Amino acid sequence: MSDLFSRRLALLGEPANLPLLTQCLHGIERETLRVDARGQLAQSEHPRALGSALTHPQITTDYSEALLEFITPAEPRVEDTLSDLERIHRFACSQLQDEYLWSPSMPGLLPDEADIPIARYGSSNIGRLKYVYRQGLALRYGKTMQCIAGIHYNFSLAEGLWPLLQQLDGDTQSGRDFQSASYIALIRNFRRYSWLLMYLFGASPALDASFLRGRPHQLQQLDADTLYLPWATSLRMSDLGYQSSAQSGLTPCYNDLASYTDSLRAAVATPYPAYAEMGVKNAAGEWQQLNTNIIQIENEYYSSIRPKRVTYSGERPIQALMSRGVQYVEVRCLDINPYLPLGIDLDQARFLDAFILFCALQDSPKLASGECCSCTENFLTTVKEGRRPGLQLQRNGQAVELRQWAGELLAAFTPIAQLLDRAHGGQAYQQALTLQQAKVDDPQLTPSARILAELQSTGESFRNFALRQSQTHTSQLRDAPLDAEQQRLFSDMASQSLAEQAALEQQDQGDFDSFVAAYQASITHIAN
């Protein structure tokens, strides 16, 4: 442990400051495919009873019309965040009738690419823009890749903590700039250590053989319908999942906020030859992508973590970051655990809190190019081979065994877990740490190992295992209906969102081409 880390821990441990640890905010976004009774992708429209995917604050769609996304409010108690998430699940399941929520991250048997429905958001200009953006994703990467689901974990430190840390560090920049720089430092450390999350929580060691659409691969055959790698933790986060040759040269620098936003602004403004050849409109003059640049909008950049700020209406994410600084981080590399009805549980969430706080409090020197590469290699090695006995990673230019490094990190998290337990009462955070240590001691306890062991012992295909889990979890959620008041609140939220979408569509909007042009131009006119 560094001297700075020890001093920051001591500062947090002072009785007057300890309550700040109860003021961190948590939010979860969980994606899940709607499937029919056979486990096949639902071809139905987004259920009207769930409200408008465009304007509903908690229930929307991601890429496909069948890919639901549940969004919790930000809460100081992670228990409340999970309760929020559970209520959204229970309401959705009550409205799904003959459909189920798909439990794993990787899809089952998908229809032909042409038959995967892209999400629609109505006839307003902003609704059409969201649809065209998704058409662009289909054009660039194919629809299959966009049917992968994950969990995003949003986390912010207490606002009252930043002035204390700034004073301790003797930092003289503005409070806003110190906070942003600290979050960017957190992200650098996340890049250093996120391989550990893949080992502990990776839950996609196998996938349906149809996912690859005949593409060449290095996977092994588990059965006629299932491919896998024997030591894999998260094929979702490997090069089989989200990938983009256009983005391969795009490595946003996390040395400061300005370099990060500059790299994304450049990517949104730099043409990519293959996309330029396709054009923004097809032969019939219909929009098929928002632009022909490396990325259409900021969110197209695939990353395991992002600096974020809540945006105002009509504001772009980069505009919000540049004008008001970083407010929280969004962890994006988490698989959905198919053994859990919500895909995540309290023990994992508490561990994530300790992990992210460690990344925030530990020294975080700038990432030199060599270390940047080793961070990426450690991550990719772990997602493909994380449970291989004796597996070695790179640390400071030296080889180190994954299990040894994991044990050292968990030991470093212990004082943070102890502080969190002091702040909240009880020993839940230390217990969450103990559960993860058990996975380091015995890789068979990891979700990825459990899934493979079950598939191998039962002879069940991935798609049948996933359907069984999906039916079980959806039934459990349906069997615990919301009380009348909660049900009414969700129904009212759905109705209000539909009314808001209708109001948008009735407004005088002007033509769509001008709307897109103004949206594209907005990123080049940002004042610091």
TrEMBL record:
Q: Which domain of life is it from?
A: Bacteria
Look up keyword Lyase and say if it applies.
Answer: no
| InterPro entries given in the database record | Gln_synth/guanido_kin_cat_dom, Glu_cys_ligase, Glut_cys_ligase
- Keywords, sorted A to Z: ATP-binding, Glutathione biosynthesis, Ligase, Nucleotide-binding
The biological processes this protein is annotated with in GO are: glutathione biosynthetic process
User: Which SUPFAM superfamilies does the UniProt record give?
Assistant: Glutamine synthetase/guanido kinase
Q: Which reaction does it catalyse?
A: L-cysteine + L-glutamate + ATP = gamma-L-glutamyl-L-cysteine + ADP + phosphate + H(+)
Pfam families, from UniProt?
Glu_cys_ligase (PF04262)
Q: In which pathway does it act?
A: Sulfur metabolism; glutathione biosynthesis; glutathione from L-cysteine and L-glutamate: step 1/2
Tell me its EC number(s), please.
Answer: 6.3.2.2
Protein family membership: Belongs to the glutamate--cysteine ligase type 1 family. Type 1 subfamily.
Query: What is the name attached to this protein's record?
Result: Glutamate--cysteine ligase
Q: What organism does the record attribute this protein to?
A: Pseudomonas fluvialis
